[in-house]
Amino acid sequence: MRLAGIGMLGLAAGGMAAAVGVLPTAELAALGLRIGPIMLFLASISVVVNLSARAGVFAALAALATQAAGGRTWLLWTWQILLAILCTAFLSLDTTAVLLTPLVLAVVRTAGLRPLAFAVPIIWLANTASLFLPVSNVTNLLAVEGGTLGTPAEFLIGMFLPGAAAVAATVLVSVLVFRRQLQGRHRVSSGGDGPETCGDRMPFRASVMVLVMILPLLLSAIPYWITTTAGAAVLLAVFALRERAAVRLSLVPWNILLFAIGLMVAASVLSALPLAGLLPRPGPGLGGMLALAASGAVGSNLINNLPAYLVFEPLAGSPELLRALLIGVNAGPLATPWASLATLLWHDQLRRGGVEVSWLTFCLWGLLLAPLAVAAAVLTSHLTGG
């Protein structure tokens, strides 16, 4: 079933639950007000990212990374790791999955390298590096909308060290799994494709300007959706003047938005059922944090991290527990293909690029990494008072 179809089923479940009184209409309306800014952010950041990619900004970054590596495979891999972390933190994990995967596949083909050593860490980092900022993951946005974790800057202060611990665990496992493929040297291309623009550099310059401006503003007190919507409006105006064919409805991933909305509505229905009240409440201290993080990770791998977050959110009665839950639902969805929407998007990009990955092998790797990343981040959060 396609993503949009699953989203429609979730919306239908919400409508039926409201009709029979299981989910009060007021709660459904409150959910709409809560996720509205999030959906606007996802739509506007997609416009910014897709138009920037059209202008050649990310291809230029990939080319710079290839040239800087100078034929050294480990250094090229390191540049990719850093780019994946930054892209995830500032532009969301779904952006990393959709945007960086085809770019990395193109780079490794040019360099004559095996793709999985570069492609698999991308999706791992897309999940584990999504702990740093509210805009890194929809689950973070849902948590921030509740007001418990403060401003984006306060969120970063509380989550930076746990996020760094999760990323460190990811990089360590990646090196252990792919160490043999990172040795030696690779081919260095003498040239590359230029920006995909209409012949002038204005779209490229405008895209760089917008990205440079919105990235620090995402840490400010300005609502995140205002920042990205303004950036999208600027780029739409520039491309409408310079390259009108690039301005189209497909800039926004409507099926993904519908899928996310449907999942969150379905999760609200689950939360309204008596089953939600039967969930054991976590205890105080490190034990409670680990228990809630583990519940979020297991729930994510069973039903996807968006509904898992909404189901367990009522149990997170303090900022410490809420951070632990975010660690579970962000760094934990690594063991099943459907645990994170980003993983499905990543696999689709691999399929389009003609790269096959064994889901069994992927799940076994995830079963190794997920507990390490979650435990490292929770322990760091507890020790630092986050």
Automatic annotation (TrEMBL):
Alphabetical list of InterPro entries matching this protein: Arsenical_pump_ArsB, Cit_transptr-like_dom
Organism, scientific name: Paeniglutamicibacter cryotolerans
Residues spanning the membrane: 29-49, 56-75, 81-108, 115-135, 155-178, 210-240, 252-273, 285-304, 324-345, 357-379
Pfam families xrefs: CitMHS (PF03600)
Official protein name in the record: Na+/H+ antiporter NhaD/arsenite permease-like protein
PANTHER family referenced in this protein's UniProt entry, alphabetically: TRANSPORTER ARSB-RELATED
GO biological process: response to arsenic-containing substance
Annotated localization: Cell membrane
Single Gene Ontology MF annotation: arsenite transmembrane transporter activity
Entry annotated with the keyword Repeat: no
Main localization (coarse): membrane
Record family assignment: Belongs to the CitM (TC 2.A.11) transporter family. Belongs to the ArsB family.
Cellular-component GO terms for this entry: plasma membrane
Domain Citrate transporter-like: residue ranges: 11-316
Membrane topology listed for this record: Multi-pass membrane protein
Keywords, comma-separated and alphabetical: Arsenical resistance, Cell membrane, Membrane, Transmembrane, Transmembrane helix, Transport
Domain of life: Bacteria
